[in-house]
Amino acid sequence: MIPVTYYLILSAVLFLIGTTGVLIRRNAIIVLMGIELMLNGANLSFVAFAREFGMADGHIYVFLVITVAAAEVAIGLALVILLFRNRGTVNIDEVRSLRW
Amino acid sequence: MTESFSYVWLIPFLPLLGAFINVFCNRNPRVSGMIACAAVATSFLLVLAVFFQLIGLPAGERSVDVVVYSWITTGTFAVDVAFLIDPLSTVMMLVVTGVGLLIHVYSIGYMGKDTCCVRYFSYLNLFMFAMLILVMGNNFLLMFVGWEGVGLCSYLLIGFWCERQSAANAGMKAFVVNRVGDFAFILGLLLIFLYAGSLTYADVFAVDPNVLAPVITAITLLLFIGAMGKSAQVPLHVWLPDAMEGPTPVSALIHAATMVTAGVYMVARCHALFAQSATAMTAVAVVGAFTAIFAAYIAMTQYDIKRVLAYSTVSQLGYMFLACGVGYFTAGIFHLVTHAFFKALLFMGAGSVIHALEHALEKGKDPQDLRNMGGLSSLMPVTYKSMLLATLAIAGIAPFAGFFSKDLILLGAFVNAPVLWVVALATAVMTAFYMFRLLFMTFGGKTRMNPPETEKVHESSRVITIPLVLLAILSTVGGFIGIPHVFAKGMDRFGGFLAPVFSGLPEAPVPSSSVELALMVLTLLLAAAGIWGAYTVYIRGNTVFDRLVPRALYTLSLRKFYVDEVYDALIVGPIRKIAWGFSRIVDALIIDGGLTLAALTVRSVGNVIRYSQTGVVQHYALIMVIGALVVIVYVTGYLGP
Amino acid sequence: MTDLPLLSLIIWLPVLGAILLLFVKGDVAARWVGFGVTALVFILFAVCFGAFKSHIGDPQFVERIPWIETLGVSYYVGADGISILLAGITALMWPLALLGTWTIVTVRVRAYQVFMLLMQTTLMGVFFSLDLFQFFLFWEGMLIPMYFLIGIWGYERSSMAALKFFLFAIFGSLLMLAAVITLAFLYHQAHGVLTFEMAALYQLAIPPEVQFWLALAFIAAFAVKVPMVPFHTWLPDAIVLAVVLVKMAAYGFIRLTLPMFPDALAELAPLMCGAAAAGIVYGALIALAQSDIRRMIAYSTISHAGFVVLGVFALNQHGIQGAVVHIVSLALSTGGLFLAAMMLVQRRNTWDMEAYGGLWHTIPVFSAFLLIFSLASVGLPGLSNFVGEFLILVGVFQQHAAIAVVAATGVILAAVYMLRMYRKVIFGPLTRDENRGIKDLSFRETAVLACMTLFIIGIGVYPNPVLRTMEASVQKLLVQTHRLAETAPAGTSGTSTEAASRPVGLDATRGISQDNR
Amino acid sequence: MNMVLPEINLYAVMPQIFLVSSATVVLIVGLFERFRRAIPYLSLVLLAISGVVAVNQLGQDPIAFSDTSPMMVSDDFSLVATLIFIAGAMLTVLISVSYAEARSIGRGEYYALLIYAVSGMSMMAAGTDLFSFFLGLEVLSISLYVLIGFEQREAGSNEGALKYFLLGAFASGFILYGMALLYGASGSTEYEVIAHTLAGERSDAVNLLLLGGLGLLLVGIGFKISMVPFHAWTPDVYQGAPTPVAAFLSTGSKAAGFVVLIRLLDSVFSGLQVDWIPLISVLAVLTIAVGNVVALVQSNLKRLLAYSSIAHAGYMLLPFMSNSQDGSASIIFYLIVYTAMNLGAFGVLAVLTARGSTCATLDDLAGLGSRHPLLAAIMAVVMFSLAGIPPTAGFMAKFYLFSAVVTGGYIELAVIGLLFSGVSLYYYLRIVIWMYMRPAARESADATGRLSYSGMTALCVSALAILAVGVFPSGLLQLAQRAVMTLP
Q: How many domains does chain C contain in total?
């Protein structure tokens, strides 16, 4: 059977990929996906640990997080649409009227 | 004992009251003079009362402290407002109130017309108050109060015609130069208090010499510097000639008879201290002698009648300090008294002349300039005669007042410091010369005025001449209060009266009477020589001196040795520059600028951070991530063993 | 003694007045209310002063009410000889100041009165506080009214001046705040209770090196406000309140720095004296170069403030008593000088000396008063400043003769710059036509200045009542300071040791030892 | 496998239940156009009721939500925190009324979301389990995302919302991952268990997980309380958000963050002090410095206040070092005062800029002293309080806070903080100068002469509170101290 460490490493990698995505992609939607990826990375390690300890709560937490993430995405997409309406773009590096 | 003197506080208080009334209750110029004179006259009578009461006492008990109230008390520091009644202070009180009274009367005539003579008389009374406090106080601090008070009044009176810029400047100069002396004086007081633990004369003089030994020279020198400021000794003499900007009676009262002699009084008062320090005594004598000849030298060439008198005052004060310096304090005080008589008279005479010429001379001609005078003897007989007497007195011609006092001083110098004696002798010649120069240029010869002017010149009014006459009498017979032993044993009333005060001093060696007589003759001859010189030059118009004396020496004297210029260059100018530098450079530039700079730095840092806030969300995210990495690395950096 | 809470009344009455003012309409009414309240305060103070027993060194009229138990803070007021004198001069000056600026302040009159009243409260609070926390509260609270007074009714560049002043002041007092907290903390460590009561904190034995820093923090707070060079640059723009600040800061020195940090003082006192002397000369020199009356007065204040600090850090009775007298007379002389100057400027509306000249015959009464105030601050004997200055010099001379000599030169310079100003403004020919029309002082103005003059002369010729009032308290203070110093190893409080080497031994402690017997 | 359903005690979560339900009520009532005007007052009443509920439970022993695994607990700490949030929310509602009216955003959702946010905060405060904390955090954040973007037509509002959303979600990602690590380390997300694990013997791996988890949590919470370097969003978002929301943001959500931080650092992770004390102290000083120094050069008032709020966060971080009852109490006290002050400051802006541009600059304040004396006076009080000048509450708060720091033995930190608070005076007083010592430059932001009564009431309340607490702080001080007594 696969040792938990592997899962953890995988989750870490996922998290980092997500982070990188947030940092380098210009399109707001993709940035959003990056964030989702980070959350899922976290979820994966939850599940892994839960499995390790043979307890249920980890799994339950994951469900909870997924719900929360869904809510977030809903809001996020709404905001992006508003953004597109207001400025006609979804490139977040063009959204910089508030600064200094 | 004290009770019988308990009224003395009235003596200074009455003039103060007079000033008060004049300031607040009186607007009438006529009355103001009366009030002032009344006040002074009353205190003069009181002084007489004190005098006779004192005479009545046995010589040993002729020193009484009269405490009025306790003034400043903190812990160990206690000073009273208290008056010391002893022969010395009594003599001073007599001179101040007596001469002062005459000058007050004279002022009625002289200043009566002036629009602000109310102010004038209140100042004058205020001065009397301060001067009396100075001479009567029984401790240094109270003396200092009077000391500064007279300084203030002199400031106000010199600047009395303050709309004249020159007068305003002169007043300020007088005050500031005096302040320099006061600075030393204060330090002296501090030292005294520190070591003697008190400022009351009685206690201080009673302190064991060994206690004071380490600082006695410092103390006495500091005090003497104070005296130099007040009594216009070189190098602090510069203010007195300028002080002539004030009304002439003021010059007579303050800058001849009373205030300027305060220094001499103070030294005499502190003889107990000065006697303990040979250095200080020498310093006093040397400074005195030098001032005497220095001022006399300048006086020989001045043309402003009052300036001549001013320098002669400086010179005579030098004599007095010389006397003190050689231990002949009695002689110093004696000369102080006689000088008060004849110098006051000279000033008042000069005043009467100026007064007459002011109206006579046409616009633009200076009524004080000797070159505008001459031949007034017939026009102003009273003034002429009285001034003649005074001049004889100051020239030291027997038997006028000046002779006895000056002779005593010369004797002292001859005995203790032959070198200084020579100087003094030379000064005597010069004195005779410049005084008669003044007399001849004013009254003698034929007039240098044009006829229309001469018509307008006439003798001054009674109220002016009567004081002249009285003072003339005093300066004629005044000397007889102190007839030296050689003429008549025990006739030295003055010395006898002051004896208890100076009893503590070592007996000065007295030369044989023949030597003494020889000295007298010598002095008289030299004085006569001086007079003859003046006569040949200014009556006979002989130009022999012009040929003999090198031009440089003459200019040096005429330009007063350029002392003022030197001071401007060396002291006043630099201080101005320093002040300017401090205010513009140190204060504005360095300190304030530094603060501004600091503020700017902070602001610019702020701006840097502010503009690093680009508004791009991913930059923020990046900052977060970096922060996060730092945090994680830091935290997890601490792994267990 | 009356059972009224006199001190609290004196402290809080102005606040009530300020609240009352909020409901008053019209400038005149506002002026009268302001004046009335301050006058009432003065009367109350007079009652208080009458009941004051000068032979007691401890605080009197003590009131104490628990306030913030959790911090061990209580509302704790009382008056000893020193504080009652300073409070007295405040109570005297306030009505006079309001009366003097009656017509000078014409904008936002009501607000002006309000802030003046609030400031009086804070001042009184500072003087009467026996609890360090409460002291600090008033000390800081004062900044608010001052800030507005400078900023709104000051002269040109006033708002920036106010800001500058505030920043200076706050940096000082924040350091002090840190020190206050630390003190309380140390006391808590030592005795397990949290308290800010001054009397208790005096007894606290603090390790010398800690003392040093704490003392520095306190000194910073006070030095900024006195002000001492180089923390003075706010003053010329904010002169309006200079006199008040000198009072408070010097009081802070006396009340807190002296008894609290004896060991530190052993090192710091000479430095402070040196700095003060330097400040005296510095301020005087710069005053010499000013052609603007206000700045001249400001720098003269700096110079005088130097004298005050000098006296305080002489650490002996003459010095401290002299300092207190000097503070009082400064309030009168410099305050009078500035008030008179404001009256003049109100008429001609320029601060430039050169713009005047030859006023003597135009406005004699004014000239007379200006002369008296100038002479007072020149330190003419017979006027109040002289007493203070001389006592200070006596005190300092015992400790550091050289410093005293330097300080004494200030006496010469003072004469120079004051008379220079007077000559330019009053003497000389009347050159400018706009000066001909100037009106002389009104009755109200004359009354105000005359009142000040009376006190100047009164204190000058008979200072003993003032001196006696504080004598006991000052002795107690010194006992405090020097006893602590002796217990501490590094304790060289100057006087006690040098006394031995001194011939007649005029050390400050002698007065005290007599007191102890 | 069979599971035992845990005993649950609804009484423990009464306040939260009340908050959520009242939010829902408001939401539903908001649907009816005719009640629109009543909504704010309805929400006020409902908030008040939940407040009363919370007050009722004050002073009792802690009650756990469930005995087996207490997700939430109702102890004085959580209750006091909840009360702070509710008070803040009520003031926010009051200052919102006219603003929302003017910008026609006064719909039911607005107030509903506000209350939802409050419920989220109080969950964070009450949570004794990382997950209830996370849940509360998300409830709070999501409602805030919407609130910030509520002015749909305002590009700024929208941009601010997006920024806050992206970064907020990003931050919660960190938090979640941190939670995962902690879960992995201790096999549970309960605070007690984690603390227990910390106390016990632990292997390097576990230690690594714990520390990493702690670090990630700090990042996430640091974002909420806008601690440098996680502060970058603050000025932009405050500037973009509707002013009342900005007020709420700067008080409520920050407070929530600190409350959680107190629970975590002072009770759960106190075992790791050696690791986080130096870190937090450095970050705190940085936060103070950046906040104050940048605020110096801001003339846009909302950004200025944003930086000032950053600086205040820095001050509030200092007492964690001392890690004492007093420290935590001083933070609570500071939070209370700070809420009043900041709501006052933003409130003035909200009232001023009800119409016109969302962001007021200094010039808009010029001559305010003569135009609106009362408003100016309130602003002045608030500014002096923020600057920490007696007799305002701000001084008392600062004093208590810094004395806690000193007592903890961190005198140098206290001195640094105090000196920077001296710097802060410059910009606070500049505002006062502009109000009183500058003539009105141009006809500035407030076109309306009269100010809304509701807004003014809120402002007067906070101003009076500031003064009252400044003079008689005892009551609140004791409350704050009581609150931290119950912390384990």
A: 1
Cα three-residue angle C214-C219-C221, rounded to 5 degrees = 100
Count of alpha carbons within 13 angstroms of residue D280, beta-carbon side: 30
**Within-domain flag for A33:** yes
| Interface touch D406/C181, C-beta < 8 Å | yes
In this complex, which of C408, C420, C427 lies closest to B159 when CB atoms are compared? C427
pLDDT 10s digits, C433-475: 888 888 999 999 999 999 999 999 999 999 999 999 999 999 9
In this complex, the residue of C144, C151, C163 whose CB is nearest that of residue D384 is C144
Residue A99 lies in a domain: no
Indicate the number of domains in chain A.
Answer: 1
Question: Residue ranges of the domains in chain D?
Answer: 10-485
Among C65, C59, C73, C58, smallest CA distance to C197 is for C73
AA identity, residue B61: E
Phi, psi at B366, each rounded to 5°: -80, 115
What ipTM describes this predicted complex?
A: 0.90
Q: What share of chain B is helix, strand, coil (3-state, %, to 5)?
A: 75, 5, 20
pLDDT along chain D (488 residues), means of 10: 72 93 94 88 95 91 83 92 96 90 83 96 94 94 94 88 95 95 91 89 84 93 94 94 93 93 90 88 95 93 95 96 90 96 93 72 85 91 94 94 92 93 92 86 54 88 95 93 86
Q: Which of A26, A63, A68 to mutate to test the interface with D (most CBs of D within 10 A)?
A: A68
Q: How close D413 comes to chain C (CA, Å)?
A: 10
Task: For residue B433, name the pLDDT band (cuts at 50, 70, 90).
Answer: very high
Tokens of C315: 């650490």
Residue entry with tokens 């002032």: B36
Do the Cβ atoms of B618 and A24 come within 8 Å?
yes
B613: chain A residues, CB-CB within 8 Å? 99-100
Q: Mutation test of the interface with chain A: which of D145, D166, D233, choosing the one with the most A Cβ atoms within 10 A?
A: D166
Measured CA to CA, the distance from residue B123 to residue B158 in angstroms comes to 11
Give domain status of residue A96, yes or no: no
Contacts of A79 in chain D (CB under 8 A): 145, 149, 158, 161-162, 165
Cis bond before residue C230 (omega within 30° of 0): yes
Q: Is B618 on the interface with A (CB under 8 A)?
A: yes
Residue in chain C lying closest to B209 (CA): C503
Count Cβ atoms below 10 Å from residue B164 Cβ, excluding itself. Answer: 15
Kindly state whether residue A94 falls inside one of the protein's structural domains: no
Contact status of D174 with chain B (Cβ, < 8 Å): yes
CATH of the domain at A66: 1.10.287.3510
Residue-number span of the structural domain to which C349 is assigned: 268-517
Residue ranges making up the domain that contains A41:
4-87
How many angstroms away from the CA of C513 is the closest CA of chain B? 10
Q: Which of C159, C167, C178 sits opposite D414 (nearest CB)?
A: C178
Domain membership of residue C229 (yes or no) is no
Compute the distance between CA of residue C241 and CA of residue C171 in angstroms, rounded to an integer.
Answer: 18
Considering only B5-14, C224-233, C371-380, which range has the smallest mean pLDDT? C224-233
Contact list in D for residue A28 (CB cut-off 8 A) is 162, 166
Cis omega before residue B241 (within 30°)?
A: no
- Cross-chain residue pair C178–D411, CB shorter than 8 Å: yes
What is the average pLDDT across B341-348?
94
Give the span between the Cα atoms of A35 and A15, in whole angstroms. 9
At B279, is the pLDDT very low, low, confident or very high (cuts 50, 70, 90)? Answer: very high
Q: How far apart are the first and last CA of chain D?
A: 35
Residues whose CB is less than 8 angstroms from the CB of residue C438 and which lie 6 or more positions away in sequence, other chains included: C344, C347, C348, C359, C362, C363
Cα–Cα distance list, C292 to C10, C243, C298 (Å): 37, 18, 10
